[in-house]
Amino acid sequence: MSAAYLVCASQRSGSTLLVESLAATGVAGKPEEFFQYFASSSLSPQPREWFAGVSDPSLLDLLDPTDPGTVDTRTTDEWRADLLRKGATPNGVWGGKLMWNQTPLLLARTRSATGSVRTAIRSLFDGADPLYVHVHRPDLVGQAVSMWVAVQTRVWRGDAGEAYHRARYRADGIAHLAGVLRAQDQAWRDWFAAENITPLEVDFPTLTKEPTKATARVLEALGQDPDLAPPPPLHRQSDGRSAEWAARYRVDAAENGYPL
């Protein structure tokens, strides 16, 4: 493997736009969210699993029931081999994406005895660090609204179409997710500081305004031709209602002490 990178983010931060752009170059790996799948179900977190500890049935009824899935029986070595194969392009560059809430799954999969996230990551790459790319979204409210829509519709990329209009506004649902997302981003910042890592920083406003330039920066850091950065491969998922919900939530948050 000639180079590896890991996009470190929280959900609805713009990380999908970045990794889809990198994948489209054909020289920057095939970055996917390899670490999101529970071995117990072979599935990523399902809508109600984002609301652990929430018991309000009127909120939970807006979310699909949980599918038990099937157990992933691969060994650690088999899982690692699959991950490295699926994430690499023929030139040897590997790409992947990791959310902070997935780090326990990473530790379990790699069987890291130390409990160190960095050791677990390094174990994938023969003891070396990948390039760390930190994608973050300063607008927590917009991020949480987007997440609330996604968990209701189960549409995580591209245009949600008619499914988008099945989503219902709930200030407490958005607030719960805002707390989860804020904690994830802070965990990444704390971890980078504790490990003395300076990641390549990509913020949501810049990424959505100039995605080609953001992709080119990562390509250059990987030693690849930045001119291969393509036009943006995705359309924004939100519509005018997202802005309306964000404004409405800010009022509700001020009245109820919800995260902002």
From TrEMBL:
It holds the Pfam family Sulphotransf. Keywords: Carbohydrate metabolism, Transferase. Residues 4-252 form the Sulphotransferase Stf0 domain. The active site is at E33. The keyword Hydrolase does not apply. The keyword Transferase applies. It comes from the Bacteria. Residues 223-242 are annotated as: Disordered. GO terms for molecular function: transferase activity. InterPro entries: P-loop_NTPase (IPR027417), Stf0 (IPR015124), Sulfotransferase_Stf0_dom (IPR024628). It catalyses: alpha,alpha-trehalose + 3'-phosphoadenylyl sulfate = 2-O-sulfo-alpha,alpha-trehalose + adenosine 3',5'-bisphosphate + H(+). Pathway: Glycolipid metabolism. Belongs to the Stf0 sulfotransferase family. Catalyzes the sulfuryl group transfer from 3'-phosphoadenosine-5'-phosphosulfate (PAPS) to trehalose, leading to trehalose-2-sulfate (T2S). This is Trehalose 2-sulfotransferase.
